[in-house]
Write a structure and sequence with these properties.
The chain is an all-alpha fold. The chain contains 9 helices and no strands. Helices cover about 60% and strands about 0% of the residues. The radius of gyration is 50 Å and the shape is extended. It starts with 14 loop residues before the first helix and ends in a 23-residue tail after the last helix.
Amino acid sequence: MASYQVRQRDPLLDQTTQAMLERRGRELVGVAAIVLGLAFVALLASYSPEDPGWMVATDEPAQNILGRLGAAVASTLMVVGGLGAWGIPVILLVWGARFVLHRGAERVLPRSVFAVIAVALGSVFASTHVPGADWPFAAIGLGGLFGDTVLGAAVMVMPVSTGFGLKLLSLAFGGGLVAMFLFVAGFDVRELRAIGTYLMTSLVRSYAMLLAAAGQGAAGTARAASALAALRTARQGAPAVTAPETTTPPPQRAGAARRDRTLPPRAHTQRADPPPPAPAHPPAP
C-alpha cells in the first residue's frame, strides 16, 4: 500500500504574533471586567429604595445612574443580598486587574466558580451587624433576605445563648469570608507571603520612623531645657547693675538768676605776697 507524504502547511501566524495576540486578548477581557465592575459600583452606589423595581411599582423616573435597568438590578441585589452584593464588583475588579497585569489569569476558571459562595458569606456576615439609621429597609437586615434567613437558622442551632452565639457566628463568618475571598480572587501562597512580607516591613519601618521622630523630639526638648537652665544660672550669678546717681542743682530764685544773667563776671586777680621784713640789727663786720 503506497503512502504519500503530505507537506504541512505553514502556520498563518508565527509564535511571537500568536503570543502577542493572546496577551492583547487577555488585556481586553480584563478591561471588560473592570468596566463591568465599575458599572456594578455605579448602580449599587446610586441605589434608592424609591426607584422602580420588583418590590416598588412607580412611574417616577429612576434616580439610579444606569436608569431603570440599573435601578431594577440594584433593587434585586440589595433586597436579596444586602451589603454582600458589593462582593460582585470587587471580584470583577480584582480579576480585571489580574488579566490586565497578566498576574494569575490562568487561575480564573477554577477559582471564579466559588464567587457565589464568597458573596453569600458576605451577606451572612453583614447580617450579624445591627443596621444603622440610614439603612433603607426596616424589616431587612444588612445582609438582605438571604443573610437574615441563613443567620436565623444558624442561631437556632447554636447551643449557647443568642447574644454569645451571634458573636461567635460573626467571627466565624468573617474569617470564612476573608479566606474565601482570597481564594476566589486568585491569591496563592507566594502572593500572600509577599503581601505579608510587605506589610511587616512597612510596619517595622513605620515603627522605626516613629521612634526616630520621638527621639529627635526628646533630644530637642532636652537641649531646650539645658539652654533654659544655663540662662537662668547666668542671670542669677551676674552682679546687679545700678544706674549712676545724678545730682541736680538746688533751684534758684528768679531774682538771683536774673542778677546772674545781668552782672558781668568778676575778674579774678592774683594777690602778690608781701616782701620779707628787713633785719633789725645790721650784721657785724
